[in-house]
Design a protein that fits this description.
The complex is a heterotrimer of chains A (293), B (327) and C (292).
Chain A (H helix, E strand, L loop, with lengths): L5 E12 L2 E13 L4 E5 L6 H8 L7 E6 L2 E2 L3 H6 L1 H7 E4 L3 H4 L6 H11 L9 H11 L16 H13 L5 E5 L7 H18 L2 E6 L2 H7 L2 E6 L2 E7 H6 L4 H8 L6 H6 L13 E6 L2 E5 L2
Parallel strand pairs in A: 3-8, 3-9, 6-7, 7-8
Antiparallel strand pairs in A: 1-2, 1-4, 4-5, 9-10, 10-12, 11-12
Helix pairs in contact in A: 5-6, 5-7, 6-7, 7-8
Chain B lengths: L2 H29 L4 H6 L2 H4 L2 H11 L5 H13 L13 H36 L4 H14 L3 H15 L17 H35 L2 H9 L3 H23 L1 H14 L5 H10 L3 H29 L1 H4 L8
Helix pairs in contact in B: 1-14, 6-7, 6-9, 7-9, 8-9, 8-12, 9-11, 9-12, 11-14, 12-13, 13-14
Chain C lengths: L2 H6 L19 H15 L1 H4 L31 H36 L2 H16 L2 H12 L4 H10 L3 H15 L2 H8 L4 H38 L10 H5 L2 H7 L2 H27 L9
The chains are: A alpha/beta (293), B mainly alpha (327), C mainly alpha (292).
Chain lengths: 293, 327, 292
């Protein structure tokens, strides 16, 4: 097994709000191999986005380490030494494309912004040409180039955000619920786009979602988060076939059955679960679950 | 937080701000070049011998270093002795007392009129957005907002006092008719008109624009879908949404309106605090200036504190505290 | 790569773009008038018939006539000539004062918004106290410190006493934008402080302060004329729109309406043009349709 692209070890992050202390992420560890789509699922407030933001160095974690291509990004010295690499090889896609794109820039400017920041000489002549190429890559025509984000639909905007992230040819794409704010039909398009990018070009994703069906369709491995802890990590197929942790079971049972009769007659599983305790233990090869020691 | 604690905290903030304000005003007034003896002794000050000057300065306490002077002023002030006006040669409080009522009448009435009329006009404009009424209100507002107050005063005097001889051009009452309310009212009409016209449009616009923004929010669509009428949406939802920010703007605009009264009072020779402040600043009448500055500054601070408190009661978002910085 | 590949992965062709919104009326008239006034004031030496400072004591308070187009003031100066050369002084003061106050406001506002909370609170307290000191006192103090008033000192006085409202707006805007996702995205991509300030913050707060800056220009003109009128601005000998009007008290007694009305109308027309131009900056933001 080669060294993982991203190695998150015992990551802990706390938010302080006055005297209130909230452990948003509590001792989370996982690894992402090159070329895989790693899913991170959980309900709202379970700490998924916080993990993503720690990985992107937006938050400074309280404890733990994050290794990206062997660089400890939580160490200020190492981070500064590899700043340029980190800023180009990691890219983030936000949930709400309306607020992650500057409304006062045209699409061409938005897509070319990372290149402008890093003063990369555009291989296709001009930044505009470059933007056009990237847009084509995600299925947008050149008539979008001079539009403003407000003039685009949600799906188009999200594609612009993806094009911007792709323009640096990143090694890791962190997608923070990229489809949650889209219509279902558009969701499918964006999902297909992600899958296409992964299959054709071998991008690595950290894909954050709260929709299990999406994760099942897209991801190769899945981690389930609950109240700041990872309760189960497994290859997608195995997780859906044989969920071990009670929370995972509850979550899976929440997927609606596309048959009204069966859906109505099925019993609702208990929803109240205590805060998760214990350590991750390997139940089957590659299948880890949080258990009391 | 309990209400008592909350009030105490606000009171403490008010006291500290007043103290800082008094220090600032005191040092500004004393550091400014100028000869206070001139304002006390008039022309005689220039003919004084050095010994006489020294004696006079000693008597007025101008010899000591600034902090000592300030400390003396403060301890006297806390005992109710606010010093004497160099120009009027009487107790500061007496000088102010005679004029406070006049200014309160003028400023207070003006403030109420501006506040009420601007809400009314703003709501009217929002109701008839882009229709004839709205457009004409805006047009008249634009023109009137371009007229400087002193010029408007001059034109009104020219028209109503000099040409038509309808209204008096100066003073607060005709000599001998001090107790006659009708006479006072007649003297108030022109200054009040100038103050209200000078500020009304600015605030009416503010209300209008904020309302128009508010009307574009999604919840309006929801309220409409629920079947609420236009008036109910505008008054019960939109107006309520803009009131907190309107309150704070109105509150922080108190100095603006106060600044307007001193121009108007000077032009109309209206015996109020504004004209007095203008005089005292020009003639280095220290003690009087101190008290007047603290009075107006205190009013400003008080108003912004009230606005804050009202905001915190009305708008739950502010009370909840701010989100921490990310950058 | 062909288009069919995209159809294959589920991407449908885009719908045709909507027709662009119709252009709104441009403020031609006010731009023209303002341009004419600006040019006239700049080039006044070429066409004014009399020396604006010359006091023709034989012709005091003459009503408008062929010899004196706009009449003379109570000191016998030709009002037509005074308007143009006085406008030059007034507009110079206004522009300088606006530049000073805008610069202070932008620097102070963004500094305060990006600073740690304690510094931000301190700076805001400072502005509040500055706001609560009556501006009259500040103006008189500054005058006294700067010495004999001239155009530059008046501009400094006006600029230094009028920046707080813009600074507050800049601060609020920057605070709102600084943690929005596109700024975070830009930071993740490696955008430095100045890149973010220039590309993201400034374009976003500029439209909201542009209008205020134009209004500031307007209030600077008003402030100059008011100060000069009250006798704490430019002296009578330096001709500006304000100092011309400071003779109005005497004109009132003489019922000489032209001394008051004509310079005032000029002032107002200029202010109206500036306002009209300023309003264009503001209205473009409001494109959405009303929900009401």
């Amino acid at each position: 097994m080669t060294a993982p692209l991203l190695d998150v070890c015992h990551l802990t992050h706390v938010f302080r709000h006055g005297r209130l202390i909230l452990r948003a992420v509590d001792d989370v560890s996982f690894q992402i191999q090159e070329g895989e789509i790693f899913g991170l699922v959980g309900e709202s407030g379970s700490g998924k986005s916080t993990v993503a933001r720690c990985v992107m160095n937006i938050y400074r974690p309280a404890k733990g380490s994050i290794l990206f291509q062997g660089i400890d990004i939580c160490d200020p010295r190492q981070r500064r030494a590899n700043q340029k690499l980190l800023q180009t090889k990691r890219q983030l896609i936000f949930q709400d494309s309306a607020s992650s794109l500057d409304q006062r820039m045209t699409v061409a400017e938005i897509v070319a912004e990372p290149m402008a920041i890093h003063r990369i000489v555009p291989p296709r002549g001009s930044l505009r040409e470059e933007a056009k190429f990237q847009l084509y890559y995600v299925g947008l025509g050149e008539d979008c180039l001079d539009k403003y984000p407000t003039e685009l639909s949600g799906g188009q905007r999200q594609r612009v955000a993806i094009a911007r992230a792709l323009s640096m040819e990143p090694a890791l794409l962190v997608a923070d619920e990229p489809i949650a704010s889209l219509d279902v039909s558009i969701q499918a398009q964006i999902l297909n786009l992600f899958r296409h990018l992964q299959e054709e070009h071998g991008f690595t994703f950290l894909f954050i979602a709260h929709d299990l069906a999406v994760v099942r369709y897209l991801c190769s491995r899945v981690a389930v988060m609950f109240r700041g802890k990872i309760v189960e990590i497994a290859p997608t197929g195995e997780l859906f076939r044989d969920p071990l942790h009670p929370y995972t079971r509850a979550l899976l049972s929440a997927i609606p059955i596309p048959d009204p009769q069966a859906e109505r007659s099925r019993p609702l599983p208990p929803f109240d679960l205590p805060a998760p305790q214990g350590v991750l233990t390997e139940a089957a090869p590659g299948h880890y679950v949080l258990r009391s020691p | 937080m309990s209400t008592v604690l909350y009030c105490l905290k606000k009171l403490a903030a008010f006291a500290v701000s007043l103290l800082v304000l008094s220090v600032v005003v005191f040092s500004i007034a004393r550091l400014a070049p100028g000869d206070p003896l001139v304002s006390y002794y008039g022309d005689r000050a220039e003919k004084m011998s050095p010994a006489e000057r020294a004696w006079a300065e000693e008597r007025l306490g101008l010899h000591d270093p600034l902090p000592v002077q300030y400390a003396r002023w403060l301890s006297n002030a806390l005992r109710g002795d606010l010093g004497i006006s160099y120009k009027y040669k009487t107790d500061v409080l007496e000088v102010i007392q005679g004029r406070l009522g006049n200014t309160l009448l003028l400023g207070g009435l003006g403030f109420l009129l501006i506040f009420g009329l601007s809400l009314l006009l703003g709501v009217l404009c929002a109701w008839f957005e882009d229709r004839l009424l709205d457009r004409w209100i805006c047009r008249i507002g634009t023109v009137s907002s371009c007229v400087p107050e002193f010029w408007l005063s001059l034109v009104l005097i020219l028209l109503f006092s000099v040409t038509l001889r309808l209204l008096p051009s100066s003073g607060a009452y005709t000599i001998g008719h001090a107790g006659d309310p009708a006479d006072r009212l007649r003297h108030l009409v022109l200054p009040l008109t100038v103050i209200v016209l000078g500020h009304l449009w600015y605030y009416a616009y503010m209300v209008r624009n904020k309302l128009l923004e508010e009307v574009r929010a999604d919840y309006v669509l929801l309220a409409k879908a629920k079947g609420l009428g236009k008036g109910a949406i505008l008054f019960r939802h939109c107006l309520r949404g803009i009131l907190p920010s309107y309150f704070s703007i109105i509150a922080i605009s108190v100095p603006h309106i106060l600044g307007g009264t001193y121009i108007v009072e000077t032009v109309f020779s209206y015996p109020g605090l504004g004209a007095l402040a203008y005089e005292s600043a020009r003639y280095q009448d220290y003690d009087l200036l101190m008290v007047l500055s603290i009075l107006s500054g205190g009013a400003v601070i008080l108003c912004s504190l009230i606005a804050q408190a009202v905001n915190e009661r009305i708008d739950p978002r502010i009370r909840a505290g701010e989100v921490g910085p990310l950058v | 790569m062909s288009d069919s590949r995209f159809t294959q992965v589920g991407i449908r062709p885009l719908p045709p773009p909507l027709a662009p919104a119709p252009r709104r009326r441009r403020p031609c008239l006010s731009a023209f008038l303002l341009g004419a006034i600006l040019l006239g004031c700049l080039l006044c030496d070429l066409f004014i018939p009399k020396d604006p400072a010359y006091m023709d004591l034989a012709n005091c308070s003459r009503p408008p006539s062929a010899a004196f187009l706009f009449g003379t003031d109570t000191m016998g100066r030709d009002i037509f000539s005074m308007i143009w050369s006085g406008g030059r002084v007034s507009l110079f003061i206004a522009f300088l004062a606006t530049a000073i106050s805008t610069a202070i406001a932008v620097i102070f506002g963004s500094l305060s918004a990006l600073a740690p909370p304690w510094l931000d609170a301190l700076l805001m307290r400072l502005t509040e106290i500055l706001l609560s000191v009556p501006s009259l006192l500040l103006i008189v103090l500054l005058q006294a410190v700067l010495g004999q008033p001239n155009a530059v000192t008046i501009a400094i006085v006006i600029g230094v006493t009028s920046w707080t409202s813009i600074a507050k707006v800049v601060r609020t805007e920057v605070r709102q934008i600084r943690s929005s996702e596109f700024v975070i995205a830009s930071r993740c991509m490696g955008g430095g402080f100045f890149h973010i300030l220039w590309r993201h913050l400034a374009p976003n707060f500029l439209p909201s302060i542009l209008f205020m800056v134009v209004m500031d220009l307007r209030s600077a003109i008003v402030a100059e004329s008011t100060l000069s009128f009250m006798g704490i601005g430019l002296p009578l000998s330096v001709i500006s729109w304000g100092s011309m009007l400071s003779l109005s008290e005497k004109a009132l007694l003489a019922n000489a309406w032209w001394i008051i009305l004509i310079p005032g109308l000029f002032l107002i027309v200029t202010l109206l043009c500036i306002t009209d131009l300023g309003n264009r900056f503001r209205k473009n933001a409001n494109r959405k349709e009303s929900n009401l």
